[in-house]
Amino acid sequence: MTEPRYTPLVASLPSTVPFVGPETQERIREAEFDARLGANENVFGPSPRAIRAMKIATPDIWKYGDPENFDLKQALAAHHQISPENIVVGEGIDGLLGYLVRMLIEPGDAVVTSLGGYPTFSFHVRGYGGDLVEVPYKGDYEDPVALIEKAGEVGAKLIYLANPDNPMGTSHPQSVISAVIDAVPEGALLVLDEAYIEFAPEGTAPGFDVSRDNVIRFRTFSKAYGMAGARVGYGIAAAGLVQSFDKIRNHFGMNRVAQAGALEALADQKYLSQTLGLVAKARVRIGQIAAANGLTVVPSSTNFVAIDCGADGAFAKRVLAALLARSVFIRMPFVAPHDRCIRLSAGTQTDLDLFEQALPLALTEARS
Amino acid sequence: MTEPRYTPLVASLPSTVPFVGPETQERIREAEFDARLGANENVFGPSPRAIRAMKIATPDIWKYGDPENFDLKQALAAHHQISPENIVVGEGIDGLLGYLVRMLIEPGDAVVTSLGGYPTFSFHVRGYGGDLVEVPYKGDYEDPVALIEKAGEVGAKLIYLANPDNPMGTSHPQSVISAVIDAVPEGALLVLDEAYIEFAPEGTAPGFDVSRDNVIRFRTFSKAYGMAGARVGYGIAAAGLVQSFDKIRNHFGMNRVAQAGALEALADQKYLSQTLGLVAKARVRIGQIAAANGLTVVPSSTNFVAIDCGADGAFAKRVLAALLARSVFIRMPFVAPHDRCIRLSAGTQTDLDLFEQALPLALTEARS
């Protein structure tokens, strides 16, 4: 008996994990966090209508979900005023990114992303052996011009751009994004991750042009719709690219109850507006808490805010540790200079009360 | 603008789908089926305790599921008397099969399976460019001796064996399976798919020996536990192989509510026994209905039964079409000589009443 004969690529991969979950930390500290603000989740949760739809659908979970996601695609098509043939539904954006990378990337293929950008995209690219070329941010913003330039230079097959960005929360207006789309080099596909788009100001997302073969845009029910644990994301692209997912995707991979929940969440746009209002208020309050402690925030177009702790990564790490110790779960960007910041989600009033109490103590502790 | 630059492998793949879902057929006929017996689902559904646990967990769906599946792995470890480090939890066996094939198979690698065996495994193998070598069944049974022999001959990296089998429902006793495990050729990994094992007679599954590097066994909450739409499966293997999944799996791919449901479903073994009793009764009744129509059944160790229609595939196809037209959703095996059969799940009393009424009419129609 010997080890299985892994492919050379898989044998060479590290056993890294894009993120450590809060539950892992809770098991280590032997207590749940009082405020869960670190995983870019939406604490305001899904629409009560969506919750109700999921509860009603639960006894039917003995049935596989519809592998075509027909009803959800119809509803999304109507919502976005596009055709269902331009929509692929999958197990969260993470799942769809995995499929997309698999379709295009072989060992040695170049992929351009931002240094310090979304780790799960990079995880997939490395997992398929792609050569990840990382372009620095410009300040706290992804740098679209540099991304496009670099993509042309290295002949990238994929260019990843999150707008709004994760982990910094900044965004570019639609004029910039439209210019990026126009400038995608021949042979490259732009992956425009709009997971947080609903939180962004009007005029952040350009209109859909599904005649373009070289752009795929991703949206999700995990963020503004408050359903991260359901795993429902979707991509919008030219029909040919959408169809290609059928060659490889896990056709019966969708949770049936999640399908029902997403459908109802989408229908309840009133609740969505309400959530966006709550998030906007919470963002303001996070800014006020930061200011009261002599700190500034990075302007956010998402449901999380990066607070500049005013020093280096080691300092922010100490602030973070002190907050965790006070039962406030947050995270921080991985890469300098962004790791000068801590990052937390727009929380409930109770969450932010806790944070407000804990932050000055954490700063004192970090400074001492 | 041009088509995305797919890998040559993906460009060469057909857009086939392993199975067409019942919903697709329902949309075409513009009516739901009255009996849903074709998708190897378990009509008796999950434990009421599991349903309750899922409903309770639903408002928390704004949180991502625990990427480590810690609680479920602990419970499964206790249930099977093995260690959690020997368990990988994933998005159904289908999802886990995809990860496994990805880890081992490159274009040109040989994989041995049965001709007419589980299509989704073959879908994944083709999707990663594996050379699928298909060994004929021996009658209505997968042929373990021939599978092992062929694997040695072609230097297979993977050998797939479902016990009990899908689509025929037959099984081999543990003595045969143990002998297969002992005979796995050097360099091959045996994929023992036990999705239906709970329905099989005592003495079908050998004990777990996780010291073996060359076997991985798959189990699921989709079948006996009645949760197909939840997407929770697991693999049991040596710790090294289990850890390797972490290199590539979608760490945040599990539905949080499904995790909670599986945990409670596992805890309710009393309900499981009850289901097994209902399934056994339904199998007997399907046999009686077949006999009353002059037909025989293939002995089943699962929750579905293949009925031998006594003629060729074209005839069985006509029987199937006539049943579908009478609102009874069933399927049939794809490959001769198994395509002489139609196949249906152990249904509720109402389901089988419908089937009992429809079958003689369908047979008459098929014969005319």
How would you describe what is shown here?
2 copies of one chain form a homodimer. In chain A, 41% of the residues lie in helices and 14% in strands. The first copy, chain A, is an alpha/beta fold and 368 residues long. Chain A folds into 2 domains: 19-45 and 270-367, Aspartate Aminotransferase, domain 1, CATH 3.90.1150; 48-267, Type I PLP-dependent aspartate aminotransferase-like (Major domain) (Aspartate Aminotransferase, domain 2). Chain A has a 7-stranded mixed sheet with strand order 2-8-7-6-5-3-4, sandwiched between helices. In chain A, strands 9-10-12 form a 3-stranded antiparallel sheet. In chain A, α8 links the parallel β5 and β6. In chain A, α3 runs antiparallel to α10, α4 packs parallel to α10 and α12 packs across α13 (349-367). Chain A is globular and about 55 Å long. At the A-B interface, α2, α3, α5, α9 and α10 of A face α2, α3, α5, α9 and α10 of B.
